[in-house]
Structure formats: structure tokens, C-alpha cells
Amino acid sequence: MLNQYMEQIETLGLNFFFAAIFFFIGMAIHDVLKEGKVPKFGRYTVWLVLFLGCAGFISKGLIQFFWESSGIG
Questions:
Q1: How many whole angstroms separate alpha carbon 2 and alpha carbon 36?
Q2: Which of 12, 38, 40, 66 is buried most deeply by CB count within 10 Å?
Q3: What is the pLDDT of residues 27-59, one digit of tens each?
Q4: Is pTM beyond 0.90 here?
Q5: Residue 27 in contact with residue 47, Cβ under 8 Å?
Q6: What's CA 36's distance to the chain center, in Å?
Q7: Mean pLDDT of the residues in the chain
Q8: Cα gap 60→68, rounded to integer Å
Q9: 60 vs 2: which has the higher pLDDT
Q10: Are 50 and 56 a contacting pair, CB within 8 Å?
Q11: DSSP track, the chain
């Protein structure tokens, strides 16, 4: 039974891995911004770029999921 779902398990594990990586990157950026006393505009810019990267990754996953479920990909 495990062999049937191996691809789904791998995909789920990879998605959780990337979520953890995004979390740790966010924590590292938060620490650097706090210790460096970066102005508000710089902090907002950094967080915006990080959010857009994360949102792009999530949207790519959703698009890929919907395309594969409808038979396009």
C-alpha cells in the first residue's frame, strides 16, 4: 500500500520541507533586520519581497495541482 502513495508522500514531504525553509529564512531575516536597526521602509521592502517569493511558490504549486488534476499537465 505504501508503494501506491509514494509519489504523494514525496510531494507532501517536499512541500513541508520548503515551508520549513521559508520559515527559517524568515526567522533569519527578522534577526538580521532587528540587529541591524534597519529603517521601517527597508523592513517593509524586505518582507514584501519575501512574501512575494513565498506567494509565487504557493501559486505555482496550486496551478500545477489544478492542471494535473484536469489532465493538462
A1: 49
A2: 38
A3: 999 999 999 999 999 999 999 998 898 889 889
A4: no
A5: no
A6: 25
A7: 88
A8: 12
A9: 60
A10: no
A11: -TTTTHHHHHHHHHHHHHHHHHHHHHHHHHHHHHHTT--HHHHHHHHHHHHHHHHHHHHHHHHHHHHHHHT--
Q: Where are the domains of the chain?
A: 37-68
22: Cα within 13 Å, side-chain hemisphere? 17
Report residue 6 as a C-alpha cell: 509514494
42 Cβ contact list (under 8 Å, min separation 6): 33
What is d(CA 33, CA 54) in angstroms, rounded to the nearest whole number? 19
